[in-house]
Structures
1.
Amino acid sequence: MSHTPHPSPYKSTGGLRRVLNALRYSMQGLHAAFKYEAAFRQELALAILLIPAAFFLGRSTDEVFILIASVVLVLVVELLNSAVEALADALSVETHPLLGRAKDLGSAAVMLMLLFTIAVWVGVAISRFVM
């Protein structure tokens, strides 16, 4: 017995239209993050400062890439955390232990990425100026 799941009306079928829609949805997501998420705006401001600084601090293409990647990953993790928080709030704004845990886990992911980014930048700076 074969069961064919009903396709979601929200899933695209492919082709150039899918790519253009994906780009539009991505831009809407970035706009929403900028408009509604203070943490994203703060991290974006730091990224605007740090990404050009990576070209001065890094002594090789690899170092520059690692510095920039660590900063971009902070933004990515923040976007995912914001998505979890928005979904949790859409489900219920009342206190629920699992929704609270989901939000805390997202926050922990951002914190770990920030700590990693700090470690990368400090490590490269020490390598450049001390050693």
2.
Amino acid sequence: MNQLELELKTLVIESLGLEDISPEDIDRDAHLFGDGLGLDSVDALELGLALQKRYGITIDPETRNMREHFASIAKLAAFVAAQRHD
């Protein structure tokens, strides 16, 4: 597991109060919403705010494919990495 993915898993757990889950429990390719981790739209907003605060990135809800970027830890890590290098 790369460092950014581990950080993101920890951020998801801490920012959403998922006390009974550890980073190792979250598969990097598992869906974060719906059938996967079971997050909802409120969780998406909280996670977006936590990402902006932690990494200093801008998340515009109008961004094309935003839902796709938040689909899994692997995709979220790629999105954050791309935003940080801009």
3.
Amino acid sequence: MILKTISDLGLAVREARRRRKLTQKQLAQTLGTTQEWISQFETGRLENPSLGTVLKAFAALGIDLNIDSVPGSLRNNDVDTGDLALDEPSFLKGRRR
């Protein structure tokens, strides 16, 4: 599944949660959020979900985010990706030892 929108992310979480036979409440407890947040996220009604919580949900549900699945056209160096570097996030660049 190629995820292009926040709604796609929510749908992926819903499908994975259901496959694992978890309720929204159980997932919310695992993530430290509310059942309402899960519901809104899964249905695409949450406009700006916390990236940290989304990534935590993906990890808890075993959803693999593989950057190798990004089409070559998105790896075009002419495209300004801002802080979303495809090779290494900028927040990690300053932490090298």
